[in-house]
Structure formats: C-alpha cells, structure tokens
Amino acid sequence: MKTMWAPWRIEYIKSEKADGCVFCQALSDRNELTLYVGESTMVVMNKYPYINGHLLVSPIKHISRLDQLNQSEMGILLHTVEKSVEILKQVMTPDGFNIGLNLGKVAGAGIEEHLHFHIVPRWFGDTNALTVFADVRVIPEHISETYNNLKPCFDKIVLTG
Ligand SMILES: [Zn+2]
Q1: Which three-class secondary structure state does DSSP give residue 93?
Q2: Ligand 1 midpoint to CA 61 (Å)
Q3: Do 42 and 27 touch, CB atoms closer than 8 A?
Q4: Distance between CA atoms of residues 76 and 118, nearest Å
Q5: What are the tens digits of pLDDT across the range 98-117?
C-alpha cells in the first residue's frame, strides 16, 4: 500500500473542529472554497487536499445517506460530479481521477454528517510529485490559484433537474 505524504493535513488534525458543518458553512458564506452552488448540489475545494484540484461534490441538503436522496436528486448529484470532472480535465489536464464516497468514520469520512463525493485528479507520477508540496505554506496559494482557474468554468455550469 502506498502512503500519501500530506503534511499540510497536520493543520487539519491540529485545528479545532468547527461546530458547524463545512458544507453548510461554504453554502451560507459562499467563501473562497465554494466553486458552485446549484439548485440541489454544490462543489467546494477541499481545504485540506491530498493533491491540488481535490474537489468535493455534495447535495445542498444536509444529509448523510444516499437513500435520503430521491432519484432526480441522485441524477443531478452524479451530473454535477461529471461536470466537475469535465472542468478539471479542461483546466488541469490530469491523466485520470479517483472518485468516491467515504461513508462512515471507519471508511475515512472526515465529515460524515454531510454526504459528499471526492474527486481527486491524478497525474502519472503524482505520488512522487506530492513531496513538491511539502512546504505547508505553499498550499493556500495552490488552492486559491486553482480556485481562480476553476471558478470561471463552474460559473458557466447550468444543471436542471
Ligand atoms: Zn451540512
């Protein structure tokens, strides 16, 4: 098994857990991580990414289980995942993606109370390249630069249920 070296995650481990949910927070603040807010879905940048371009796609509803979504909401959620992949392909030209759901703490869910898909762009050799980001102070710049590159594309998304 490969272990990803992600030293900036220390910040996450050390930081006090926010009372509110980060997704609901991002929704109400429309902060510097919020890329897209649609009718029933939203896309935010992962503040503590494993790799640059790591996005989180979630329903707007604060729910924790897939069976709490109806069929149309499920469709829109997957459509949002697909659009996000399309934009990442365009802007960051990755070689592939890891996309998934972590359900429950045991599965590694950091924020288990609000359902979210992880979209992690991958490049050939990126597990080695991760050491490039070893300086923790570099990360916020990466995130805001990536945000500025992605935001105009997300602004053009139109999803209808
Ligand atoms: Zn929430």
Answers
A1: coil
A2: 7
A3: yes
A4: 16
A5: 999 988 877 777 778 899 99
